[in-house]
Amino acid sequence: MSSANGENPKILQNFIDGQYVDPVKASSVKYIPVTTPHTGKIIAQCPVSTAEDVDKAVEVAKKAFKAWSSRTVKDRVQALIRFHNLLYTHIEELAELIILEHGKNKSEAIASISKGAETVEYAISLPQLIQGKILEVSRGVSCQDARVPLGVVASIVPFNFPIMVPFWTLPIAIATGNTLILKPSEKVPLTMNRVVALLKEAGIPDGVVNIVNGTVDAVNAICDHPEIKAVTFVGTSHVANLVTERCQKLGKRVLALGGAKNHLIASPDCNIETTSTDVVNSFSGCAGQRCMAASVLLTIGSQQALLDRICDKASNLKPGSKPGEVGPVIDKLSLDKINSYIAESERAGAKILVDGRHWTSEKTEGFWIGPTVILHTNKNDKALHDEIFGPVLSIYESSSKEEAIEIENGNPYGNAACIYTTTGATADWFISRFNAGMCGVNIGVPVPREPFSFGGINRSKFGNFMDITGDGGVEFFTWRRKVTTRWGTGDLDLKLKM
Ligand code: NAD
């Protein structure tokens, strides 16, 4: 167990072939300190693995693929059924790790594990879902298709959901018969480091799931490795684009989810109580570090009563890790970035309606900033356009629904968008015009849950155009073998006549 007081930071290892192992170049390997955002203290040291570690993981994953892919899907998911139980018996322990290394509050940590468990449930259902098609396409000729695993695949994940995002890919990738290399975020490597031991305990064979810790070198080695057949990435748009280009140069299958700037629109007929609660939960939950978090609220016309309720609710939130409290942001770099956007908005003439910056000065350690609400009058303010990734809501009063949709459509991302209204026709008008992959009506975090797939458009998603999770995940992690068969009936007719 890692130490929260920074006295004995745990030295992490990679997990290859069912064993925790030191990086190949153990004598020269560098380590990155992992800090807890509550205090900034070092709780672990994460190895910066090299291409040699990726090679080693690929070698064992390739070997494991032979036996694993030859098992039936029904057989493979038995271990996932046992793992699902283990996930819930260890939910408290895993939630504590998430709180420690990421800073989520207790209910957010538990919810993120349950959401991860949902993709496990989907994978467990695959024997019922992925049978191929078969049809007699002309007399005596049948066509059949079957899903075939790709081989060794890899997932590179961000810091903001230590367990949920790795579980967007892991269960479907392995249930469909692939073997996996996971590159966790160096900022939150502890949770998955523990989860792989539970996968082993559940009976997932050695070499089927491997962890290579690290940063850029490990990611580049994954993209470049000829034996890694497909790569998923989740993180900032800049890196998503780099990873996509690198993989595509080799003709590799790649799906890379990027950043977001999600717009919520409040129609004058929205329900003020439910809208204000939802908007505040959306922009301040997980300290705003969700790719589905609200970051811009466009009111149609001035809606003072709604703004007042949002400000009341946001300013009543407290820092901490109990359910309902707002946790810290991941690190100093992130805290400084968030603060700089608030300061720049203020300089540009925006009004800070709720100012969370006092949390930073009140807390003597860690990376804290309270929910902050900014009212902009200039559409060009940077905070209205860039991904800030903190508990900050930018509000702009648009003059009409046409102006609101023009602003939403003009943003380069395309993850989520939501309309708050009590009128079906208004909801339909916006839903059919939003430029976002995941749209909501009166739901600030419109995450499609299993069996639906998850994914945005534009600069929120790069690579081969499939979605992650659900049937998009199955499509991504398999290829279709089409078999056309003609046996003829002649011999049988002959035998029957004899
Ligand atoms: P990040 O891009 O900094 O890191 C993601 C992963 O890439 C990490 O594993 C990291 O080690 C690696 N990495 C970082 N820089 C790299 C580089 N130059 N070359 C190669 N690899 C590199 O992202 P983050 O800060 O960990 O996560 C937050 C971001 O993730 C936000 O932009 C958020 O919107 C996005 N996100 C998107 C989704 C989605 O579904 N679209 C979901 C979750 C998070």
UniProtKB/TrEMBL annotation:
<protein>
    <recommendedName>
        <fullName>methylmalonate-semialdehyde dehydrogenase (CoA acylating)</fullName>
        <ecNumber>1.2.1.27</ecNumber>
    </recommendedName>
</protein>
<dbReference type="InterPro" id="IPR016162">
    <property type="entry name" value="Ald_DH_N"/>
</dbReference>
<dbReference type="InterPro" id="IPR015590">
    <property type="entry name" value="Aldehyde_DH_dom"/>
</dbReference>
<keyword id="KW-0520">NAD</keyword>
<dbReference type="InterPro" id="IPR010061">
    <property type="entry name" value="MeMal-semiAld_DH"/>
</dbReference>
<feature type="domain" description="Aldehyde dehydrogenase">
    <location>
        <begin position="25"/>
        <end position="478"/>
    </location>
</feature>
<dbReference type="GO" id="GO:0004491">
    <property type="term" value="F:methylmalonate-semialdehyde dehydrogenase (acylating, NAD) activity"/>
</dbReference>
<dbReference type="GO" id="GO:0006210">
    <property type="term" value="P:thymine catabolic process"/>
</dbReference>
<keyword id="KW-0560">Oxidoreductase</keyword>
<dbReference type="InterPro" id="IPR016161">
    <property type="entry name" value="Ald_DH/histidinol_DH"/>
</dbReference>
<dbReference type="Pfam" id="PF00171">
    <property type="entry name" value="Aldedh"/>
</dbReference>
<dbReference type="InterPro" id="IPR016163">
    <property type="entry name" value="Ald_DH_C"/>
</dbReference>
<dbReference type="GO" id="GO:0006574">
    <property type="term" value="P:L-valine catabolic process"/>
</dbReference>
